[in-house]
Amino acid sequence: MPINEAGVCKYIHGGAILAYSNAISTYRETRIKTASQGQLVMMLYDEAVKSLDRALELLALEAGGKKNPGNIEKISKSVLKTQEIITELIVSLDFEQGGEIAKSLFSLYTWFNKELFEANIKHDIHRLTSVRNQLNELRSAWAEVAAKNSPEAVRKSVVGVNIAG
Length: 165
Hints:
This protein is mainly alpha-helical. The chain has helices spanning 20-33, 37-63, 69-91, 95-122, 125-148, 151-158; strands spanning 11-13, 16-18.
């Protein structure tokens, strides 16, 4: 495959040059660097749900009789990736500012990792589904909080306030 000076791998098809890998990587990096804390948390939840969806999809294929030894490793990697994301969520908790919410999330995240560990060993679709659904609910709650605390929402709430009395 031809590579240009910038290290971009090019694929030539029908005269069109496609240089996707660096463009996608740059987009993702910029998206992460410019995201608010709330958006970063939602990205983590999104990726965790996506990883569990992939594991559940592969487990459903296995249960449906389409056995593929390579799927076992893929399932495990998807679950482990979710555990790593949850661990990242744990270490990002601020117990001083977060108070009881942070403590509750810590307990919930710890439980998620325990459930994922057991589910990965036993290929337990029900446990994976339960954790996936709860992560998705938490993501929705974060989306609401982030929307209410976004700069646009704050500016809108200030407009029209009469402080003169």
